[in-house]
Design brief:
Number of domains: 1
CATH superfamily: P-loop containing nucleotide triphosphate hydrolases
Number of helices: 6
Number of strands: 10
Radius of gyration: 17 Å
Strand order of the largest sheet: 6-7-8-3-9-10
Helix content: 25-40%
Shape: globular
CATH topology: Rossmann fold
CATH class: Alpha Beta
Order of helices and strands: EEEHEEHEHHHEHEEE
Largest sheet: 6 strands, mixed
Distance between the termini: 22 Å
Strand content: 25-35%
Structural class: alpha/beta
Length: 223
């Protein structure tokens, strides 16, 4: 089953009279339970493409279908519902709330999705346990290592059981020991939860944990 699909997806930035293409006519389909990496050098368009697939950035042209729903033409008022329902996003810089504990960082996402009170606490604790951080639930981000912060980010992305997980350079700020743990967790999330996992990276060491990869250069898929 195809969960995430893009057709002729293009993003052009305008700088005065100039048009600067960041992504050029990308066509891509990813299925449930699949781990796909979009690989390429810095500035190749990886993060721009991922942001469009995650309904964070609007494309200039082309189509995006998430779980059977066309999303590229939706107005800004409807996009948050799509993101809450379908997409969990893992950011390179973690994007944790500094004043909230690990558990609270996960709970805030659940509450945005309508899960509150004891149910939110129970699910947040279960998610932190699943990523090996049950004993760090009360810790603030400043008390966590880089690998621990990224695992909190994964728990947060899994909150509410979204069918699509998107990760932007999830191993970039980590040593390989922690990076490998993160990739293993993402693969497990795909295989045990039948989720689609798409990540952008330039880290070729993750290849054994992928189902497939595509290469992007100058905004175009080249393989």
């Amino acid at each position: 089953m195809t969960t995430l699909e893009a057709a002729q997806l293009t993003k052009v930035y305008r700088e005065g009279p100039l048009e600067v293409p960041a992504v050029r006519a990308v066509t891509l389909a990813v299925g449930a339970g699949e781990v796909l990496a979009i690989m390429g050098p810095s500035g190749s368009g990886k993060t721009t493409l991922l942001s469009m697939l995650g309904c964070i950035l609007r494309p200039s042209s082309g189509t995006i279908t998430v779980c059977g729903e066309r999303v590229e033409g939706l107005d800004e008022r409807r996009l948050p519902r799509i993101r809450r329902r379908y997409v969990g996003f893992i950011f390179q810089s973690f994007n944790l709330f500094a004043a909230l504990t690990a558990e609270e960082n996960v709970r805030v996402v659940l509450e945005m999705k309508g899960v509150t009170g004891r149910a939110a606490r129970t699910e947040a604790q279960a998610l932190l346990d699943a990523v090996g951080l049950a004993d760090r639930a009360a810790a603030l981000p400043r008390e966590l290592s880089g690998g621990q912060k990224q695992r909190v980010s994964i728990a947060r992305a899994l909150a509410g059981n979204p069918p699509v997980i998107l990760a932007d350079e999830p191993t970039a700020n980590l040593d390989w020991k922690n990076g490998e743990q993160v990739i293993r967790l993402l693969r497990e999330a795909a295989k045990t939860g039948n989720r689609t996992v798409v990540l952008v990276t330039h880290d070729h060491r993750i290849a054994p944990y992928l189902d497939r990869s595509v290469q992007i250069e100058d905004g175009e898929l080249v393989g």
